[in-house]
TrEMBL record:
Pfam families: EF-hand_7 (PF13499)
InterPro entries, per the entry: EF-hand-dom_pair, EF_Hand_1_Ca_BS, EF_hand_dom
Record protein name field: EF-hand domain-containing protein
Keywords associated with the record: Calcium
Taxonomic source organism: Ziziphus jujuba var. spinosa
């Protein structure tokens, strides 16, 4: 979560004053007792009402609570604000997993192009712990490069995604073979 905290802070530092005021207003609206921090109960109440069911639980609250004091100060709240505003609240769709996808994850290329997400943590993707109608997945960084190429034809794009995925897999196999360690 440290990287998300730092990213949220960087974005906040580059907001306009009006945008910073919006973040402060959201924080104040969640701070129902006005003590300058969000308790777990305030956090759960507001997020449940707003429909953020997957992150409205004590475990996710603890991930955002950097200092572990049981409250979110404004700086800690900025991580939540960033995740909500950037639509970065992603959770694994693998069987019963539901892990928060805070780093690298895999997404179905077809679903992404149709503006429906099917995302998997590396463990579920590697272990094939999912059922899905499509077979082409890329990690979020490879997907960004894939989309930057601007494939408008889905078939051409899907073929390129398969080629890219196979290229990545081949590269990993080569690295693993070249760096194999032996004690003899």
């Amino acid at each position: 979560m440290e990287e998300i905290h730092e990213t949220a802070k960087a974005y906040y530092n580059n907001l306009t004053e009006s945008q910073k005021d919006s973040a402060k207003q959201m924080f104040q609206s969640m701070d129902s007792n006005g003590d300058g921090s969000l308790s777990l109960s305030e956090y759960l109440e507001i997020l449940s009402k707003k429909g953020y069911k997957l992150c409205s639980n004590p475990n996710f609250f603890k991930k955002i609570d950097r200092d572990g004091d049981g409250n979110l100060d404004f700086e800690e709240f900025l991580s939540l604000y960033y995740l909500i505003k950037s639509e970065r609240l992603l959770f694994c769709d693998g069987h019963g997993c539901g892990a928060f996808l805070k780093g690298v994850y895999f997404t179905c290329v077809h679903c992404f192009q149709c503006e429906k997400n099917f995302d998997l943590c590396p463990s579920c993707f590697s272990g094939k712990n999912f059922l899905h109608n499509h077979a082409i997945f890329l990690d979020n960084f490879a997907l960004l490069h894939f989309m930057a190429k601007g494939y408008s034809n889905k078939r051409e794009g899907a073929n390129e995604a398969v080629v890219m995925g196979l290229g990545i897999a081949k590269f990993i196999v080569e690295i693993t073979a070249n760096s194999a360690c032996s004690i003899m």
